[in-house]
Amino acid sequence: MTHLFPIRRDGDRPWLLDLYSCAGGAGTGYRRAGFHVVGVDIAPRPNYPFAFHQADALSFLADLIATGEIERFSFVHSSPPCQDKCALTVGTNRAMGWGGTHVDLVAPTRVLLEASGLPYVIEQPNGRAEIRKDLTLCGEMFGLGVLRHRNFELGRWSVTRPAHPKHRGRVRGWRHGEFFDGPYVAAYGNGGGKPTVAELQAAMGIDWTDVREELTEAIPPAYSQWIGTAFLSQARAGVAA
């Protein structure tokens, strides 16, 4: 029997590599979808709930490819940062010898993901970096208390875009000196009517970290659970005699 996608297993779960993992928003969704998750982030992430390596994501992925260890994995998720002088970006730049200036990490990440030979995802928010917007997800699709639109480039696989439902109202907070109420909270920044940590946790569906920076950087697990479930469904349907 052969698979449309190579499903490599350790026990009863295929392995997924979660690059630039932060505290595990994406990883948790993939775990719920059925993967064994391994996270990689250049910053220490004591709240990450699964197997974790503190390392430069690009160097770690390059080493997996060079040693053949990448063959343990079936799928790669990546959420490369691209902020100018972001702590994660600066650390990665130093490890790669690129200095402290702004570097787009999406392009080199894509090169290595292509070299891996595996199906993959590159995730970015609106207005950040240039990726193919093969898939866009929104909190309203999952009944969440955030909008948090995220775009996903899909490599070596594809999926039908789900319908984008009409938003039920505004994001709560201050805009130009006026306060607006609404069914969603702003999952970024601090002040200006921004939600409490507890409100962020409830709105995002994240309860294992109470670090605001980790919450504001995370994607809701519902997004990656949807992606992981779609991928595995396709993989299983591709089994042929």
Automatic annotation (TrEMBL):
<protein>
    <recommendedName>
        <fullName>DNA methylase</fullName>
    </recommendedName>
</protein>
<dbReference type="InterPro" id="IPR029063">
    <property type="entry name" value="SAM-dependent_MTases_sf"/>
</dbReference>
